[in-house]
From TrEMBL:
Extent of Low complexity compositional bias: 65-81
SUPFAM superfamilies for this protein: eIF1-like (SSF55159)
Locations listed in the record: Cytoplasm
Species of provenance: Macleaya cordata (Five-seeded plume-poppy)
InterPro entries named among the record's database cross-references: DENR/SUI1_TIF, DENR_C, DENR_eukaryotes, DENR_N, SUI1, SUI1_dom_sf
Keyword annotations from UniProtKB, A to Z: Cytoplasm, Initiation factor, Protein biosynthesis, Ribonucleoprotein, Ribosomal protein
Region of interest (Disordered), residue spans: 49-86
PROSITE patterns from the UniProt entry: SUI1
Protein name: Translation machinery-associated protein 22
Any single biological process term in GO: formation of translation preinitiation complex
Protein family: Belongs to the DENR family.
Cellular component aspect of the GO annotation: cytoplasm; ribonucleoprotein complex; ribosome
Positions of the SUI1 domain: 102-173
Superkingdom of the organism of origin: Eukaryota
Length: 193
């Protein structure tokens, strides 16, 4: 005769009251993590590994900040700027902070018409809608703010104005230095200055 099936024992999270294996889909997974590491380590083995890595990172940062001589303190200062440039994403991926630069690219359509794209003005605090209006008026052409292939907003200006635009940008927005403006020519980034 077959045995009667026994009820399954479900472990519920004390923080969000969901079953432990569903905490990651709940509203406060960050708050649940310490409880899960302590009470359900077999459910989320990645949490334990991440906690160990964070602890190791803290120790390595402390070791880097400790210096033997006066020169080490200066080196420690450079490591903090590197730390600001790098941002850790979930899964251990690293995202670098965007450099403040304006990239100008000329795209040829139908072998005759050109479109000049301006990317990165928003990093300097320039409002893109105002900038597109000013560019359209200055060069007597159509200019609009569009989403580029990387889902970031850029300005498309009709016509080949790539070399006249550098002077206009530096005069109109003094916060944008000329050494931060680049052209894309033949797939390579070239400094405008």
């Amino acid at each position: 005769m077959a045995e009667k099936p026994q009820p399954v024992q479900v472990l519920y999270c004390a923080v969000c009251s969901l079953p432990a294996e569903y905490c990651e889909f709940g509203p406060d997974f960050e708050k649940c993590k310490p409880w899960l590491i302590e009470n359900a380590p077999e459910t989320y083995p990645d949490l334990i590994r991440d906690a160990n890595e964070k602890e190791a990172d803290k120790v390595s940062e402390q070791l880097q900040s400790v210096s033997v001589s006066g020169e080490g303190a200066a080196a420690g200062g450079t490591s903090t700027t590197k730390q600001e440039e790098v941002k850790r994403l979930p899964g251990g991926k690293i995202k670098k902070k965007e450099k403040k630069e304006v990239v100008i690219e000329k795209v040829v359509r139908n072998k005759r018409k050109c479109v000049t794209t301006v990317k990165g003005l928003d990093l300097f605090g320039v409002k893109l809608s105002d900038a597109s209006k000013k560019l359209g008026k200055k060069f007597a052409s159509g200019a609009s703010v569009v989403k580029g292939p990387t889902e970031k907003e850029q300005i498309d200006v009709q016509g080949d104005i790539s070399y006249d635009i550098v002077e206009f940008i530096t005069e109109t927005w003094p916060d944008v230095p000329e050494n931060a403006i680049y052209f894309i020519e033949d797939g390579k980034k070239v400094a405008a200055a």
